[in-house]
Design a protein that fits this description.
Order of helices and strands: EEEHEEHHHEHEHEEHH
CATH superfamily of one domain: P-loop containing nucleotide triphosphate hydrolases
Number of strands: 9
Radius of gyration: 18 Å
Distance between the termini: 32 Å
CATH architecture of one domain: 3-Layer(aba) Sandwich
CATH class of one domain: Alpha Beta
Number of helices: 8
Largest sheet: 6 strands, mixed
Structural class: alpha/beta
Strand content: 15-25%
Strand order of the largest sheet: 5-6-7-3-8-9
CATH topology of one domain: Rossmann fold
Bound molecules: adenosine-5'-diphosphate, magnesium ion
Length: 242
């Protein structure tokens, strides 16, 4: 179980994350919603230890998160990869790092599910489209079956059909492998379909934390309500929420 307790992060002398607590159990998905600049990527970076927290505790199964236990799908797909390495090297890196054997059958299955032509993996990051790089990022996160995966807007560069297929693959693998997922998303339809719980982030604070069922039935915060209304008026949510 991921536990974040009173996490505070300061950057450039400003408090970007203010005393945030949350948890995600194995097999469960927490969706983090909130406007641009709310601190979502900072939260993800701090959970992984890429940014230093000024206070608070972060643990997985009661201990600090060890290398290899958590994977990240970064928000900027192409800058997520070493520009000098063919994608295949970067995508398989979690296996090398964990001294895990290659698993061609798994790679093939993931490529299929993510609609990645395996030949594409022999290209450099700038030789593929943003959408392809984003799917390669998801592939890298899934390849070594980590128990915790943090997704920072992982579907944003994909067309609607590919989004749907990618979401389906993530969800199927989660059911099979039981990883805990924290997913930053602007996609209310995705959150409604796949999240177990919702955290609404605003200006570094958690404005609202609820089960997905309760949130989509009746958000308790005005801001949560506004986010939901905007999504409903855009037709982004398929299932009835009223
Ligand atoms: N390295 C940094 N130094 C100073 N401020 C930063 C840094 N990184 C991000 N910020 C600021 O932190 C706030 C939250 O950014 P971010 O976590 O990227 O938001 P989100 O992912 O929700 O869009 C923004 O105001 C951003 O300008
Ligand atoms: Mg962000």
């Amino acid at each position: 179980m991921l536990n974040v307790n009173n996490l505070t992060v300061q950057l450039g002398g400003r408090e970007i994350i203010s005393s945030i607590s949350l948890s995600v159990a194995p097999g469960k998905t927490l969706a983090v919603l909130g406007e641009s600049g709310a601190g979502k990527s900072t939260l993800v970076g701090a959970i992984l230890g890429l940014l230093r927290a000024s206070s608070g505790q972060i643990s997985w199964a009661g201990k600090p998160i060890e290398r290899g236990k958590a994977a990240l799908v970064m928000q900027e797909p192409r800058s997520a990869f070493n520009p000098r390495l063919p994608l295949r090297r970067s995508v398989l890196e979690p296996l090398y790092a964990g001294k895990l054997p290659d698993d061609p059958a798994r790679l093939e299955r993931l490529c299929k599910g993510l609609e990645i032509d395996p030949n594409m993996l022999d290209r450099l990051p700038y030789q593929v489209s943003i959408g392809q790089a984003q799917r390669a990022g998801v592939l890298r996160a899934l390849i070594a079956s980590p128990p915790l995966i943090l997704f920072d807007e992982p579907l944003s560069a994909l067309d609607a059909v590919t989004q749907k297929h990618t979401a389906k693959l993530i969800s199927t693998l989660q059911q099979e492998e039981g990883f805990a997922a924290l997913i930053v998303t602007h996609d209310m339809g995705y959150a409604a379909a796949h999240a177990d719980s919702i955290a609404v982030l605003r200006s570094g604070h958690i404005e609202e934390m609820a089960t997905a069922e309760n949130f989509f039935r009746s958000p308790q915060s005005q801001y949560g309500q506004d986010l939901l209304n905007a999504a409903v008026s855009l037709g982004a949510i398929e299932r009835a929420v009223i």
